[in-house]
């Protein structure tokens, strides 16, 4: 029996379509080794994942302690899930991400001290699921100061000097709202002298994300004297368009914590 060429091509295409998604599906353990626990910053974790349709999210926690609800963006914002909705409660909940777009997850329980896990324990996040053929988002997300966040008495220049930044990378400044702020000094001189630009050019949410879009950026805190006390650093970013990975800017909704 002769098999003609189109048949073979269709056959190969079919096999490829069946095999490739399965082979590339990834399990993302929510919170990594920490699992699904009270007081972990899941939003930052989610921003650091590259998630594709077909991938799975795995929530690990002691049975009975917490739960998982997939909600809409309003439910995520307000920590709300309808009383009719049944959450996941197995302690090892696996959710397959079947469509692209933003997916929202919350916990609806109280911890041992009677505190709400979503409202008070930041057990909530959204994650952006990419279509199989979408390019990986460019850039890396760095938490400024790592676990210390954006605060006094940290050597931020030493923190920045240890890293190779690219244009398109993002810096996340975490701090209690009202205590600090984030400004980009307009040049090296205003950086050295701690002169912030206009007040309306600063960020002050406490969870501020800045995309590096220029080779040189100077960051300073706008709170009185904080810059002079060391809340300042300079970042040099290379241009990754010279490497094949860069594909435009990354879309984000800032979380409201
Ligand atoms: Cu400050």
UniProtKB/TrEMBL annotation:
The protein's name in its UniProt record: Phytocyanin domain-containing protein
Keywords: Copper, Disulfide bond, Electron transport, Glycoprotein, Membrane, Metal-binding, Signal, Transmembrane, Transmembrane helix, Transport
Superkingdom in the source lineage: Eukaryota
The organism of origin for this protein: Lactuca saligna
Residue stretches in coiled coil: none
Signal peptide: 1-25
Pfam families assigned: Cu_bind_like (PF02298)
Entry's Gene Ontology molecular function annotations: electron transfer activity; metal ion binding
Membrane topology designation: Single-pass type I membrane protein
PROSITE patterns according to UniProt: PHYTOCYANIN
Biological process according to GO: response to symbiotic fungus
Domain Phytocyanin positions: 26-131, 140-239
GO cellular component terms attached to this protein's record: plasma membrane
Record's subcellular location: Membrane
